[in-house]
């Protein structure tokens, strides 16, 4: 089980992968918008998305868990 | 036994280090014997040793657990200090400390780099009165390091522990190489932490190589093996002059390795991330980029490279990580690297694509203002040739930290798509016209905002800034390498001093 966390404080802009989807290491699990930049949040390792804990448009603090990969 | 035979016997005994079981333990941990490390590090036959006979009358203390002397790397003279972990776990006694102090004095006298190869259990508490508090005791090692800082390169490699007071040895070096799995540094060991503050924590978490190279910033290079660490040490020196008065050696130029032209790498849309490593690869000589603090605060890239054969130091925002925004740690990393280059006559190239310093309550509590100010200090006082390239954008104090026009770059040049402003169009329109936007009926807002953004974009258009002489040149990306080569060549004779005073009072 690996947690995908927000690298910086911002707003969830897009959630390109759905629960159950397989992701490769480095593939974007979420895209944040912060400081007017789109900040991709890569999967730290390959796996299947077990859980997505945030919604598009939601404010997240740095370190917040966005998704869980198994 | 005659004295000559005695000498031969003593040298052989001391060169073998401590008892065999400590050599076995070293091997199990993937560690080399100290003299093997030096054989790999130095040019063959170049080493002369001082104080080999320290404590030779005590059979349990070969060289008092440290090897010091002078050798050569690629033909250049260096001083070395290397712990012998097979003797009392490489710990420091009175003669150990005296040997270290002396080799530092030699490096200063000879104006040559000093290399610290550390693998030591720290000071011997049982010998403390002879090695800890006095004028030429352990404190003098650190005092000397401070005095040497910026005069001769000081490179530290941790092959094992460097605990408690000894942890200041890496901290006061220019750069620190740490061998993953074996290197550690902490003021209080896990055992002490449990006893004194009640914390239960393992060695790696407390002060392992990976922690220091990714979190604390004490480590600059994370090495997977001792061989790799020694390779890094040798390579690092190839970018350094012998001392603050020298300049790094040039080599034959090589074409960049990057397959894409620079014009194909930077997206026009300001908000889309791209990989700055690709830009660097297509700009500098093939295989010349040598990154410092790769694992730490990766939203800012710092490293040495060669541009048409000449050494430069690169400070580049990395839009692929955290949007390239500057944080507390990246400002700290940038400041230190700029100081390093300025100390050793290494011209600085800034590659700016920066949305600014991070904002928000979290970073304010971390002191983003004073850390950013520290980077601005380093940029201001750097008197080596420095060129700022606005690759895509430089907003707010990001422009200042990346050697914008007010910070005396020898040139500030922009690529044609660059934007320089207090903030980007979206944020600016929102800031200036917030009340007006709110007054409008909802359906009219998008058109109004779009019009204002277009107006704003025209106002900060790079041709307008060039027309106002804010940037010195606007350059096609595919001509950038040639342009920079010529400009750095022109600035090579630069000799300016920043200002006269006793010492600055910078924020840290």
Order of neighbouring strands in the sheet with most strands of chain A: 1-8-6-3
Helix percentage range of chain B: 25-40%
Q: Given the structure, what is the number of helices of chain B? A: 20
| Backbone structural class of chain A | mainly beta
Order of secondary-structure elements of chain A: EEEEEEEE
Span from first to last CA of chain B? Answer: 61 Å
> What shape does the CA trace of chain A take?
globular
Q: What Rg of chain A is obtained from the alpha carbons, in whole angstroms?
A: 11 Å
Please provide a written account of the structure.
- Chain A is mainly β and about 70 residues long.
- Chain A contains no helices and eight strands.
- In chain A, the strands form two sheets. A four-stranded antiparallel β-sheet of chain A has the order 1-8-6-3, with no helix packed on it. Chain A has a four-stranded antiparallel β-sheet with strand order 5-4-2-7, with no helix packed on it.
- In chain A, a hairpin with a 2-residue loop joins strand 4 and strand 5.
- Chain A starts with a strand and ends with a strand.
- Chain B is α/β, with parallel strands linked by helices.
- Chain B is about 40% helix and about 15% strand.
- The longest helix of chain B has 17 residues.
- Chain B is elongated.
- The model of chain B has no long low-confidence stretch (mean pLDDT about 95).
- Chains A and B meet through strand 5 of A and loops of B.
């Amino acid at each position: 089980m690996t947690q995908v966390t927000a690298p910086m404080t911002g707003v969830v802009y897009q959630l390109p992968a759905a629960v159950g989807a397989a992701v490769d290491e480095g593939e974007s699990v979420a895209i944040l918008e912060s400081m007017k930049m789109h900040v991709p949040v890569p999967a730290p390792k390959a796996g299947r998305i077990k859980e997505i804990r945030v919604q598009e448009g939601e404010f997240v603090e740095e370190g917040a868990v966005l998704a869980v990969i198994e | 036994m005659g004295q000559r035979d005695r000498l031969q016997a003593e040298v052989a005994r001391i060169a073998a280090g401590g008892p065999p079981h400590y050599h076995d333990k070293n091997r199990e941990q993937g560690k080399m014997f100290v003299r093997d490390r030096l054989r790999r590090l130095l040019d063959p036959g170049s080493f002369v040793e001082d104080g080999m006979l320290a404590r030779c009358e005590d059979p349990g203390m070969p060289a008092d657990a440290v090897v010091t002397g002078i050798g050569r790397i690629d033909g250049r003279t260096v001083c070395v200090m290397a712990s012998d972990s097979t003797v009392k776990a490489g710990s420091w006694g009175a003669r150990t400390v005296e040997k270290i102090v002396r080799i530092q004095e030699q490096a200063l006298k000879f104006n040559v780099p000093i290399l610290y190869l550390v693998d030591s259990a720290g000071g011997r508490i049982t010998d403390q009165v002879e090695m800890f508090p006095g004028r030429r005791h352990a404190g003098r090692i650190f005092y000397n390091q401070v005095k040497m800082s910026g005069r001769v390169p000081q490179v530290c490699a941790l092959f094992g522990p460097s605990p408690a007071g000894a942890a200041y040895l890496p901290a006061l070096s220019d750069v620190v190489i740490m061998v993953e799995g074996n290197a550690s540094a902490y003021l209080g060991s896990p055992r002490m932490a449990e006893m004194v503050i009640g914390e239960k924590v393992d060695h790696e978490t407390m002060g392992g190589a990976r922690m220091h190279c990714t979190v604390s910033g004490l480590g600059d290079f994370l090495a997977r093996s001792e061989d790799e660490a020694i390779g890094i040490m040798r390579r690092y020196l190839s970018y350094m002059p012998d001392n603050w008065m020298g300049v790094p050696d040039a080599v034959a130029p090589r074409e960049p390795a990057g397959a894409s032209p620079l014009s194909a790498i930077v997206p026009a849309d300001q908000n889309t991330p791209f990989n700055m490593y690709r830009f660097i690869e297509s700009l500098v000589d093939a295989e010349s980029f040598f990154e410092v603090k790769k694992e730490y605060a990766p939203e800012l890239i710092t490293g040495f490279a060669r541009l048409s054969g000449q050494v430069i130091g690169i400070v580049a925002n990395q839009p692929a990580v955290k949007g390239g925004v500057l944080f507390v740690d990246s400002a700290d990393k940038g400041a230190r690297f700029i100081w390093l280059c300025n100390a050793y006559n290494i011209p600085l190239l800034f590659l700016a694509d920066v949305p600014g310093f991070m904002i928000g309550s979290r970073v304010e509590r971390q002191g983003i203002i004073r850390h950013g100010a520290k980077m601005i200090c380093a940029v201001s006082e750097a008197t080596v040739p420095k060129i700022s390239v606005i690759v895509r954008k430089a907003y707010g104090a990001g422009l200042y930290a990346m050697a914008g026009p007010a910070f005396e770059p020898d040139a500030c040049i922009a690529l044609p798509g660059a934007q320089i402003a207090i903030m980007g169009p979206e944020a600016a329109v929102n800031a200036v016209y917030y009340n007006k936007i709110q007054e409008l009926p909802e359906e009219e807002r998008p058109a109004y905002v779009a019009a204002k953004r277009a107006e704003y974009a025209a106002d900060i258009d790079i041709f307008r800034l060039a027309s106002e002489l804010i940037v010195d040149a606007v350059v096609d990306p595919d001509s950038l390498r040639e342009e920079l080569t010529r400009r750095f060549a022109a600035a090579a004779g630069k000799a300016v001093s920043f200002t006269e005073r006793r010492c600055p009072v910078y924020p840290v």
